[in-house]
Structure formats: C-alpha cells, structure tokens
Amino acid sequence: MRTAVGIIGGGPAGLLLARLLHRTGIDCVVLEARTREDVEQRQRAGMLEQGTVDALREAGAAERLDAEGLVHQGIELRFERERHHIDFPALTGGRTVTIYAQTEIVKDLVALQLAEGPPLLWEAQALAVEKPESASPVVRFLHEGREQTLICDWVIGCDGFHGISRGTFPAAGSHTYERDHPYSWLGILADVAPSCDELIYARGQSGFALHSMRSIHVSRLYLQVPGGTDADDWPDDRIWDELDARFAVDADWTLHRGPITAKSVTPMRSYVHEPMRHGRLVLAGDAAHIVPPTGAKGLNLAVSDVRVLARTFAELHRTGSERLLDDYSRTCLARVWQATRFSYDMTRMLHAQPDGDVFENRLQLARLRRIASSRHAAAELATNYTGLPLLT
Ligand code: RFL
Ligand code: PHB
Hints:
With 392 residues, the protein is an alpha+beta fold. The chain has helices at residues 12-24, 36-41, 50-58, 63-68, 88-92, 102-116, 236-247, 298-319, 323-350, 358-373, 375-386; strands spanning 2-8, 28-31, 47-48, 70-72, 74-79, 82-87, 97-99, 120-121, 125-130, 138-143, 146-157, 175-190, 199-204, 207-213, 219-226, 260-274, 277-278, 281-283, 289-290. Strands 1, 2, 8, 9, 10, 11, 17 and 18 form an eight-stranded mixed sheet that branches. Strands 6-5-13-14-15-12-16-19 form an eight-stranded mixed sheet. Residues 8-14, 31-34, 39, 44-47, 102, 125-126, 158-160, 163-164, 185, 187, 266, 285-286, 293, 296-300, 302 line the site of 8-demethyl-8-dimethylamino-flavin-adenine-dinucleotide.
C-alpha cells in the first residue's frame, strides 16, 4: 500500500489530522491498533478550549458539538470550605470553554471518516517505522493476521504515550523531560445530573477532588488517591463519602449521588519528548507529550499540534516548501511547555502532599488566596485555562 501521509493512531490527533488533510486534498491512511468500539468508548477528556472547538468546526466536525456541547463561563475553586468563582469572559475579554466528551469527538470524526474517507484501518497495529531519514519511510504493520507495509512520503506518529513512533527516534539528539507525581486520580462516571453549573476544583483536607460532567444527565468526578491504587478497593459508598468530604462547604450545597457506571485510575505525569520531528517522521499529541489532567490540557495540545501540522502540510502541498515543517517542533514545543507549566502548577496547588509537608500546605493556601483576591492572579489562571494562543 502507498500513501502521501501515513498516520499511526486513530485517537483524536490522528483522526482530526486525517480529516484536515483530506479536506486539503492530501492523500492519507490511518492505522489504528484497536477496534472501533474500544476507541469510541475510552473515557478521557471533557474540557475543550475555544481553539479546539474552532479546529473541529474548521474540519466540518462540529455539528453535534455545537448542538450538545455545554459552554462554560468559568470554574469554581473550593478550599477551606469556601467557594470562589473564576469568571472567564470577564477576565479574558470574552473567552469561554466547552464541555464535550472526547468519546463524542472521536465518534463524530470516525463517522465522517468512514463516510467520506480517507481510509481508516481498524486492528492495524504498527510494528515499526523504517527509514524515517529517507524520502520514502515505511510503516510495517499487522492487519488481518499478516504483516503488511505502508510506503509513505511522510509518517505521523499519533499513537499516544504507549505507541511505537517515539521509540524510532535515534537516542542521540532526543531528549525527554519528565516528572511523576506520587498520586493518581480515581475517575468515575455516574448516571446523575451534575450538582453544579460549572466545574469545581476542590482542595479538600484529605486531597483533591474535581466535579466535571458529560451532559446534563451524566456526572464525571475525580478523586486524588495514592499512586498504585486499585479501583476495586473503592466501593461506591466509599467514593461518594470521600467526594462529599472534599467538596464540603459552609454554604448550602449538596452533592447528588447516582449509580456509578465506570471507574478507572489514572497516574499523574508530565512528559515531553524533544524534538517532535526526525526526518520524515513527525509526532503529534500524547505520542510526544503528556500532562497531568488537572489543567485539562492533553487533548487541547493534541489538537493544537494537529492544527499546526495540517497548515504545514497544506503549504508543503501548495508550494513544495518545507519551511513550516522545519519550524514544526519549535512552534509546538513553545506551547507544550506553557501547558506543561500550567498543568504542573495547578497540580501542585491543589493536591495534598503525601508527606504532609506543612510548609507546602501553607504555600498552596497562599496561592489559592491570591487567586481568590487578586484580579490579576485570577486573570492569569483564566488566560491559561481557556488556552494560550499559538506562538508562531
Ligand atoms: P490517544 O488518545 O492516546 O490516541 C492514540 C491512538 O493510537 C493508537 N495506537 C496505535 N495504533 C496503531 N499502531 C500502534 N502501534 C498504536 N499504538 C497506539 C491507540 O489505540 C489510540 O487509539 O492520543 P492522542 O490522539 O494524542 O489524544 C490525546 C488525548 O487522548 C489525551 O491527551 C487526553 O485524553 C488527556 N486528557 C484531557 N485532555 C484535555 O484536553 N482535557 C481534559 O479534560 C482531559 N481530561 C485526559 C483527561 C486524560 C485522562 N486520562 C485517562 C489519561 C482526563 C483523564 C482521566
Ligand atoms: C473531564 O471532564 O474529564 C475533565 C475536566 C477537567 C479536567 C480534567 C478532566 O481538568
């Protein structure tokens, strides 16, 4: 098989890139290791920056997002039994965010791709990228029980954090920067209307909790738990009791309980691989970088990488110039490091330190008080949360 752009991975990054390239008239093929059901059901992100919504509109993939997405004007910070509203439009000159689940974005992109192309192969597991330095790199992959090859002009690794693309980069010249946090998030989905109109980020006495949502009928909640926690050690009542304790405020407020339909544990990690291009192999999204979810940046970064890449290939296609491609890594990494910083700072500000460091606790409260009392500090949070511009 031959194509101009071989895309490894049919997550949000790979699917959106395929859609944008297809609309520019650039030939591509997507190889996805899992089944359609797996990819469409994986519970993950929910908060979209304005730039992400714009990119999905540009791709002609926002019909359901525009009808069903919940536009949010801010978030609430909770600490020491107090509530503080961060008003995004007032602090950022009118910007908002949208709640729309990653599962739904993936379903929308898959449906469009199956209807209009380009080719999308399920259960096609890339095994290796060969000759990335040459003019015709090759992806070897397993599909329908046999090994096959995809000969490409360019290969894009959109295969997430556990994919194979990043490992193809030569060690000499590659650098990774990482930080693990000693706690994880236990995430649940519950069939109950959200108990809030906007997301609540709570620093409780015994740890962090987040109240998010998937729709007006489904709540998504997270609890800080120790690293290595097994979700089976958390029966439903224990989860609700702990959420109740961490969201507790002096004002009149009730957390509504309902049947829990999914539970999972996510480790908290920051990771950046530099550079994001080696010859004709280019990385996008989680394949190159991950952030702890406290800043809600992972999916948004994947989308901004893909926007840059689609623009880059459009110029290459139109003019033959590789100028933008030469800048790809630098352009994306500038934004990636800003999101890495923001996610790290939010994580450190809101999570209980397992070693009970009282100095750190005082600093956390001082940071939160500063945001609650200074328009300038609140604007800095709001500007980062709603999404920094692409620094081109
Ligand atoms: P994905 O989604 O991991 O997709 C990669 C795809 O590649 C496939 N693959 C392969 N295919 C072929 N051959 C191989 N060898 C392959 N190896 C892997 C995989 O099957 C998969 O389909 O990466 P992508 O596209 O870069 O998208 C990134 C996002 O999924 C991720 O950053 C976000 O989910 C992070 N995230 C959040 N981001 C936000 O912007 N806002 C949020 O509110 C938010 N909340 C979250 C999150 C992530 C979470 N978890 C579970 C990590 C909340 C959580 C709990
Ligand atoms: C989510 O809805 O899954 C979500 C929202 C905000 C975050 C992380 C996750 O910071």
